[in-house]
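Weekly structure sync, notes
Attendees: PL (lead), two postdocs, one rotation student
Agenda item 3: pending single-chain targets
PL asked that the sequence for the first pending target be pasted directly into the notes so everyone works from the same version. It is reproduced below exactly as submitted, 145 residues in total.
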Amino acid sequence: MNCGAEMDMKGVCPVCDWRPGWLPIAQATSGDGRPVTTFAAEMRHKFLAAYAFIACLAGVILVITGIAGNGSPGVAGILLGPLMFWAGAAALKITRGGKVWTGLSGGEKAGAMPGLVVGGFFGLMIIPALIMCIAVLKLADLRDF
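Predicted structure, written out during the meeting:
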């Protein structure tokens, strides 16, 4: 909130017209003495969207490997996969596809955090795997067969 007025966090402030995801950039006084605020949309957080999407993707992959596998790893995949997918989907919904973070309440940020943490963890695991794949492909090009 910009003006401190009570409002529904999903709506528009009745006093200053602030919305979640908007940042104040200029303030002035109108002709009748009321403060007027100019807002701009919050910049898109690409990593928020990517982490939430990776969490959804990892959940789907975990369910598929859980169904295809047998034994205790398969059961863990079947149980944890939907939870990971749900956490990523909740993060995408709460952050509105990675467009909003600053305007969210503490409860909404806490609701988005599990999906972002899971997606960030799996996203960081992907980086070394990609580096190793690129290195292997480069080494294959350098070898004389």
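Discussion points:
- The longest strand covers residues 22-29.
- The chain is about 55% helix and 10% strand.
Action: rotation student to compare against the earlier draft before next sync.
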